[in-house]
């Protein structure tokens, strides 16, 4: 069964995307001469294709990651092309179709691809939080003036999920909440997909839904949106004041999602990516923070075994039809 059919119409592939080619040095990030590991990828292919999930606007994502393209071009000696997809499924189908070389997925996104084409993609790296954790959290938020302080207060209200292929924006909260409160379509007045994490939180602020789930590091200052995650990105962009929302619920710790590359690339290409990320933290911390959507202590090599629990959870959910 293809990814676009796994969760029905809500997950239909969005085949349209935005592409940006060429990367000028940004004044704050991407201007450091690259001295990390390199290889000549042109012996294998003419370009390096980076895909992004549609959790925020294409303009914001591509601008924040412009410095990544600069270093990719220097590390691999080929042009870097950056692609934005309106939903997760479109990106996943592109990766499985052999049209992407790099995407940072949530755990569920990688699990979905592994279930569809085992071994086609390879988890390469994940992030380590400033605390040393290699996990993050799904949290549910409500407007502070809504009177919703607990999950019990949210009963009979409208819940917004991020995307059908999101780990923190759907898979984990749909499982953990159902285990505690039963059928979510009965518990809440309605549940709907918001088209990404940022849209979910904006939906809460605008009154389109009463509560929404999103991802956070779960460490650091609440007033700053934690050290990293969707709330932190929104605070940094000036579109969210943390005083306007309240955290209603938090999941258990979720394995941080992997940077994934196709198995068809030579091992050297994956090794260069590991080295490039290590170089980035030490030599251009501003770019690293842009790429990581917040603060990280390190990029940590991972493999399929790190995601076995998520693969099992996604497989069980598919088999149950829920």
Characterization of this structure:
- It is built from 13 helices and 13 strands.
- It has 322 residues and is an alpha/beta fold.
- The chain has two domains: 3-130 and 257-320, Periplasmic binding protein-like II (D-Maltodextrin-Binding Protein, domain 2, 3-Layer(aba) Sandwich), CATH 3.40.190; 135-254, 3-Layer(aba) Sandwich (D-Maltodextrin-Binding Protein, domain 2).
- The strands form two sheets. Strands 1-3-2-4-12-5-13 form a seven-stranded mixed sheet, with helices on both faces. Strands 6, 7, 8, 9, 10 and 11 form a six-stranded mixed sheet that branches.
- It is globular and about 60 Å long.
- The chain starts with a helix and ends with a helix.
Q: What's a quick, concise take on this entry?
A:
With 322 residues, the chain is of the alpha/beta class. It folds into 2 domains: 3-130 and 257-320, D-Maltodextrin-Binding Protein, domain 2, CATH 3.40.190; 135-254, 3-Layer(aba) Sandwich (D-Maltodextrin-Binding Protein, domain 2).
Annotation, overall tally of beta strands: 13
Discrete helix count: 13
What structural category arises from helix and sheet content? Answer: alpha/beta
The second-level CATH architecture of the largest domain is 3-Layer(aba) Sandwich
What fold name goes in the CATH topology slot of the largest domain?
Answer: D-Maltodextrin-Binding Protein, domain 2
- Our Rg estimate from Cα atoms comes to 19 Å
In the CATH hierarchy, what is the class of the largest domain?
Alpha Beta
Strand order of the largest sheet: 1-3-2-4-12-5-13
What is the CATH H-level superfamily of the largest domain?
Answer: Periplasmic binding protein-like II
Largest sheet: 7 strands, mixed
Amino- and carboxy-terminal Cα gap: 16 Å
Oligomer state equals single chain
Encode the helix/strand succession as letters.
Answer: HEEHHEHEHEEHEHHEHEHEEEHHEH
State the helicity in percent bands.
25-40%
Tally of structural domains: 2
- Low-confidence segments: 1-27
| Structural shape | globular
Question: What proportion strand?
Answer: 15-25%
Mean pLDDT: 90
């Amino acid at each position: 069964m293809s990814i676009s059919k796994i969760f029905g119409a809500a997950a239909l592939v969005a085949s349209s995307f935005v592409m940006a080619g060429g990367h000028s040095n940004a004044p704050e990030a991407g201007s450091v001469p690259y001295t990390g590991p390199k290889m000549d990828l042109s012996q294998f292919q003419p370009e390096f294709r980076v895909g992004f999930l549609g959790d925020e606007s294409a303009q914001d994502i591509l601008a924040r990651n412009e410095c990544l393209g600069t270093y990719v071009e220097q590390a691999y000696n080929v042009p870097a092309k950056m692609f934005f997809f309106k939903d997760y499924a479109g990106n996943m189908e592109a990766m499985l179709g052999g049209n992407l070389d790099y995407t940072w997925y949530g755990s569920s996104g990688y699990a979905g691809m592994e279930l569809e084409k085992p071994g086609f993609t390879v988890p390469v790296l994940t992030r380590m939080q400033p605390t040393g954790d290699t996990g993050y959290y799904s949290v549910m938020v409500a407007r502070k003036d809504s009177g919703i302080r607990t999950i019990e207060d949210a009963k009979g209200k409208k819940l917004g999920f991020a995307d059908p292929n999101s780990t923190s924006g759907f898979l984990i909260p749909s499982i953990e909440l159902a285990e505690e409160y039963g059928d979510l379509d009965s518990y809440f007045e309605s549940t709907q997909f918001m088209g990404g994490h940022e849209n979910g939180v904006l939906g809460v602020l605008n009154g389109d839904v009463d509560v929404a789930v999103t991802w956070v590091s779960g460490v650091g200052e609440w007033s700053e949106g934690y050290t990293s995650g969707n709330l932190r990105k929104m605070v940094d962009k000036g579109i969210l004041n943390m005083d306007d929302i309240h955290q209603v619920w938090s999941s258990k710790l979720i394995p941080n999602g992997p940077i994934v590359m196709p198995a068809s690339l030579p091992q050297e290409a994956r090794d260069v990516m590991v080295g490039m990320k290590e170089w980035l933290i030490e030599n251009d911390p501003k770019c690293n923070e842009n790429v990581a959507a917040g603060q990280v202590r390190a990029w940590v090599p991972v493999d399929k075994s790190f995601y076995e629990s998520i693969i099992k959870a996604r497989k069980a959910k598919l088999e149950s039809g829920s």
